[in-house]
Design brief:
Length: about 550
């Protein structure tokens, strides 16, 4: 193949977003004869998107030198800024700062009335976001957008509006911030910006959706990101982040087994090369799923890995401690996290967990204070999920204070909100509160209906700890499942599927003797004497 043929194929592959092929063809052409600056830029981008970060950085450095030698100082400055962005994302702060200083010096020499001054301002605004000064960052990003418009630079306009939107969300100005992010997403989905910036925008917007509990937008943009990634099989960056967002969406929707598989895949992708910031979020997603399923050791390990990766494991770890009966540790962890986070947008999940922990500690006044702050934040944000979380906290506090009528009204609002945004686990928890309030008001029949509905959802999700809590709340009653433990429910489902004790032992990695003991306990608890009767019970009670 001639160099010209390799170049043509490399350029065509780049247009098709076949990054591995583009990288291979352009690298081959470069080895035969040094590429022009335009093709060298394509090679650097394709190397990055194919997962060759070190090579991409080296190519960007080379491109910078070539642009300088060609007398294209402004283009060299832009190249230096993008290289700094890459190095920042890899955690190489000192080198990134050095390249920004180079770009700054170049603009001093050739003039600052250019789009490149806007790219430098993006870097400084990101630093303001990193230290928590969202107000200054918002102003700087607004100026970035203005520079981009003045110089008709679409990428710069998108970076400015994206950064401004994220900063406004951080300030609690959710409606205003999300409107800007929606506008940015239109530019992305219509193909107005390149692949690197497209990936950055997707991750930023989805992060904002998660921070604001905007589940509908999160689901919509996660689906769009998944399609974008699937259209580029060779794409390496962003795919791990995409998996984290997918795992979160699946968890919200109640597809916990699928979410666990996706979160595990995200952990693997984001661990190689090491040091990728999103790996902490991936471990946290795994931890949350293990906690909800009652898999304590796995949850502990995943929370630890999240913490080691720089992701605060709260509020999940505190809720795990609460499940373990370690109430003081739960309260201490949540209070510490809240003290460290003044930003209103990051407080709701911590406050919701603190209400539960303080009620478990018998501190109704403290729980009331936390619930009041959560209500204020939910009222300002006007997001359905937050409103449902706030109503749940209010109902819990009112129930603890002996106000079942007030608790019932708030619990029903909570259930309606969770049901509306299609989060079955949270909706089931709200139904437990509705049932408790009905029972306090003397309506045992209505309470039984609510408890049974919640139990069915918990069983479907394999939410063992919640089933156990529900049995305790209902005085050890069957909660719709004969009082079976999560493991006994697993065994019963396999019995109902026609499996022998030996087959069940193989499936669950248990001994034959242990399975026989489980089967005997199941028969005793549900009052049957044969596998056929146990199967009928399982179907009658929607356990399979």
């Amino acid at each position: 193949m001639t160099t010209t043929e390799a170049l043509d194929r490399g350029r065509a592959a780049f247009e098709r977003r076949a990054w591995a092929e583009a990288h291979a063809q352009l690298a081959g052409a470069d080895a035969a004869s040094p590429l022009s600056t335009a093709d060298l830029e394509l090679l650097a981008v394709s190397a990055y998107l194919a997962g060759h970060d070190d090579e991409s950085a080296a190519l960007q450095e080379r491109l910078y030198g070539e642009l300088l030698r060609a007398g294209r100082a402004h283009s060299a400055a832009r190249c230096a800024v993008w290289l700094a962005f890459l190095l920042f994302n890899r955690g190489e702060q000192a080198q990134a700062g050095g390249w920004l200083a180079r770009a700054d010096r170049l603009l001093d020499e050739v003039g600052r009335d250019c789009a490149e001054s806007g790219y430098l301002l993006v870097a400084r605004a990101r630093q303001m976001l990193a230290v928590g000064d969202e107000a200054v960052a918002a102003e700087m990003f607004a100026e970035v957008g203005a520079i981009g418009q003045r110089h008709r630079d679409v990428d710069l306009v998108v970076l400015g509006r994206m950064g401004q939107g994220r900063a406004l969300v951080g300030l609690g100005k959710v409606t205003e911030g999300i409107a800007l992010l929606d506008e940015v997403m239109v530019a992305v989905t219509s193909g107005e910006v390149g692949p690197v910036l497209t990936g950055i925008v997707y991750c930023t917007v989805l992060d904002a959706c998660r921070a604001t509990f905007d589940l509908r937008r999160a689901r919509e943009w996660t689906t769009a990101l998944s399609r974008w990634c699937e259209a580029q099989p060779d794409l390496v960056p962003y795919r791990g982040e995409c998996q984290v967002h997918r795992a979160h969406v699946l968890r919200d929707q109640g597809a916990w087994q699928d979410a666990l598989a996706v979160a595990g895949d995200a952990c693997r992708r984001l661990s190689d090369p090491p040091g990728q910031p999103a790996v902490g979020d991936a471990h946290y997603e795994r931890a949350e799923l293990h906690r909800l399923r009652g898999e304590v050791a796995a949850a502990e390990d995943a929370y630890r890995l999240a913490g080691l990766s720089g992701r605060d494991p709260q509020p999940g770890l505190a809720l795990l401690r609460l499940d373990q009966g370690r109430v003081a540790a739960s309260v201490a962890g949540l209070r510490r996290a809240l003290d460290e986070i003044p930003s209103p947008i990051e407080r709701p999940a911590l406050l919701a967990a603190l209400v539960e922990a303080l009620l478990a500690a018998g501190d109704a006044d403290g729980a009331d204070t936390a619930a009041a702050e959560l209500a204020e934040l939910a009222g300002a944000a006007q997001v359905p999920m937050l409103a449902a979380m706030s109503a749940y906290a209010t109902a819990s506090v009112r129930l603890s204070r002996g106000d079942p009528a007030g608790a019932l009204a708030a619990a029903r609002r909570s259930w309606a909100g969770f049901h509306d945004v299609a989060t079955p686990y949270e909706a089931a928890r709200a139904r437990v509160l509705v049932g408790l309030a009905c029972r306090e008001l003397g309506d045992a029949d209505a309470a039984a209906v609510e408890f049974d509905a919640a139990a069915r959802t918990f069983r479907r999700l394999s939410a063992g700890p919640d089933l156990d809590r529900l049995r305790t709340l209902t005085d050890g009653g069957p909660a719709g499942g004969g009082g079976l433990t999560p493991r006994e429910l697993e065994v019963l489902r396999l019995v109902a599927a026609g499996r022998s004790n030996r087959a069940i032992a193989d499936a669950l990695v248990l001994s034959d003797k242990t399975v026989a003991r489980h089967v005997s306990n199941i028969f005793t608890k549900i009052g049957v004497s044969s596998r056929a009767a146990a199967t009928a019970f399982a179907y009658e009670h929607d356990l399979v």
